[in-house]
Write the structure tokens for this entry.
Amino acid sequence: MQTRREKVYLPRKLRVRIKRTQAIVIAGLLLLMLIFPQLALADEPGYSISLSPYSGYYKDQIGVTATVAATGTYHICWDSHSAANVVETFTATGAGSYTHTFYMPEAKKGIHTVYLVDTAYSEKAKAGFEVFPSVKIDPDEGPIHTEVTINCYGFAASQDVRVKFRGIVIGTGKANTVGSLAILYPIQPTPSGLYTFEIEAKEGTEWVSLVSKYFKVTATQCFIATAAYGTPMAEEIQILREFRDKYLLTNPPGQAFVDFYYKVSPPVAECITEHPSLKLIVRAGLAPVVAMSTVVVNTTTGEKMAIVGLLVLVSVTVLMWTKRQRGKCEKYN
């Protein structure tokens, strides 16, 4: 009976020991897994590199402080320790720290690596830098028909991107391998003021607004009126411009008319400028337009309705008088 008990007791004791041994081995392996990668990524003794800031946008100026252990020439490389990726080079006169700057190159969204290497492009140290999306527009202000270039940077490679102006999609594209793309857009008939280019990127199945940029639409010259009055600051031109911005550029038919006007008016204005005798004739022709615009711009809604009613009443009266006169003429004939 005692022998049977020992046979039952010994395997149970061994199992406990085996479990303890397994736990120790697993803990050791986990510790090695944590230590070895850190040892592999560690900088070479005596060398280090730090960045300020450590995140940013395309063409941001980045400060880099490199600590070296020996005299020599060193390179700062972006994403790869190779000659093609050098962004800054400096010469160390001895062991110590050296501070330099470089401008962030075009790069896709995410974390990138900045390397400190020697002339043989052997890695000495490295640091991480995170890239965010950004947009630059050129120019950032102008009148109607100004062609604007919207340059997008720092998006994910091959990511779908679209641009909105005044809430309307005006261009779409796909980012290249470094997360960049450019879209051209001529400013359509729009009232003067400050507007936003909004850049969205497709994240999964949804469009997400990431960055935006302001564009100022400046007052567009009234070519014919300016040529007739001799200066864009004339009171009549200010009235016409206000009428255009408030009552023409706020609806599709008015926008179409303004667009047509700006396409055909420059040669007419040039002709008026070359023949001063035409200025009085054009002013006379513009007088009714200026008068109407003055009334529309400088009256309230109630006053406008009263004026319209008066015009209708006058028109009906004239029409009735004309018919009566025509009837008398037919009677006498």
